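3.2 Worked example (two chains)
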Amino acid sequence: MPPRTWKWFHRIWFGSNRMVALHVGQELWKWDTSRYESIDGIIAALRRAGRPFDDDSVLYVATSSLLSDVVDAAGGIEYANIRLHECLERAQDAHAGYSITHSLDDYYITDPDMEAAWYTVEELAVWARTLDERLKRAGSKGRADQGLIPALADGPRRDAVIAARSRLLNGGLREARWLSGLNLHMQPTQAGFKRGKIENGRIILPFPDRLTGRVDHRWRLTYDDGRDALSFADNLMESVATFMDATLGAFEEHLPERFRNI
């Protein structure tokens, strides 16, 4: 089965009832050069290449990849999740016989696949942060908020994407963002060796209890609820898939009438 990311990209570019990709159409976007941080760089690149341009062509470049850039970040989460499964499957195979004969329940182990699994969890959290910032982030240079949502013209399309993002944040994205902040600016969740724990003959990666805000040190994390990283990653991936389906569905449902096949 192809990864869902491939299907999402395909939905952007192809559809049975339309003549254009989903990002096409001035009426989809806030058509104002003053609000986009990318404008100055786009103009500089066009001048360097000696290509003519006007506001419309520059704005098209500024907005044309916003939707696919969101899919790209969702794909980062998906492919990290796939690799996490692969790492844990290899680790499970390597330790299966040993755990059966040595009663290793509640025993911690480490090996290269366990290390790779934890690095993949950290990568997934960073991609989650990337996804949210490509949806909406504070602007700089005195400009408005940046990302897909601030760029969308007011209306039902934008409202649907905002609602979908709200559900996504509650579906694990907000927690992943806070963990990525710890990882990017301070430290990993574990000191020293990255370990897995054997419970009932299965290897799990102990995952922190539900976060309610930013974390400034791993000692603030607790592990009382028995969460594991794979379940968290799978739940986040399903939330991302639900979000992407809702977002692309909103673009498909509210396609400008002039682009529909007759």
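3.2.1 Second chain
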Amino acid sequence: MKNQFLNFSLIIVIASFALASCTKDEGAYLGVIKVQISAPTDFPNQSVSGLEVTLLNTSDNTTRKATTDANGLVTFNNTPVGVYNINTSIKLSLSLTLNGVAQNVALTPNEIKQVNVPLIGVPASDGFVIKEIFFAGKQDYSQTDRFFEIYNNSNKTLYADNLYFADLAGYTGSNVNDAVLNLPLDQYYYAMRVAKIPGTGTTYPVQAGKSIVIAFNAMNFKEGFNPTNWAKLTIEDYLDLSGSDFEMYAFPFLETKGFTGNATFDINNPSVPNVDILYMYNAANNAFFRLNDYGPGLVIFKPEGQFSTTDVIESPLSTATNKLYFLKIPVSSVIDGVDVLDNSGASKYKRMTNIVDAGFTYLKPDGKAFYSNMSIRRKVERTDGDRKVLKDTNNSTNDFEAISRPTPRTI
């Protein structure tokens, strides 16, 4: 009995030591993040209490939420070490939102990290906004069914004539060899491809709450449905883009450069108007107008005065044998922009400043969305009569969601 008691006591001691050791080890991998929200300089009296702050762990994509105290402070205790994105916003009116964002906040073991997040006032775009972007299709390897959609978020008729759009230069974080461009973004963004909608000024009216679809190929892909397709798609997965408003047909532009383009990918539907393609950084015989496969930085803009198609900058990633040039887009001319990156931890690859897109969005947090048939779509904020008003805080982290299947013209 005495030996049994000693053995039992020894087991308790060992278990207690192991528990204490485990607790100590777990504590070594935790830290504290203190987030201080501060009012914007142009709204110095704005209250910063009671704001919901979201903390996103970019490693496992878990989120934690907490509310600021009377002084705008929120503390996340017992936070696992890692890299975090911080996000908060407050809508002051239908036309003004305050955004607060901090990205790539690294927390080390036992650290108490102090992070100051100033709010930035961003007016809503009472006009055209980007509604949906479909770029990672699953129909076939050529992905010729890509499109994006522009929506009239106002309460009046607008005209799409001479509205420009651009796919911005830069990597998305999809590859270990990706490099940040490290170009200044205060005055200009930098585009790989630029086009504009034609018209005389009143040729293409867009009613309030309606949209236009710009397709890579304006075709009815359902006509080529194969029930034994390799991706096991149903006919509902195939798009009918034959009724698109515009098509991105590159041959006319490429011919002016002495090239013929790529007939395999670039197919013209004569019943759908073509956009005017103005710039392609990779103009060649095998080229076509496309969006970044792993996440476009898409902007729509209207430049003041004459827009130069020769105002280019050489990429920092150029080499002696591979020269890369990107067209400069004045930030002041941008109407709306959506920064789509590969995954939730790719914020260092952002191609837009906070005034256009304070956050970024993605199809899947882990980036494994290529050929997924998923799409990026803007959320609905409210209904005004028969008109849907889409969410527009100039922060795609808040404004957009990833959906399982593209929905052109559908909200």
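3.3 Remarks
The CA atoms of residues 227 and 343 lie 32 Å apart.
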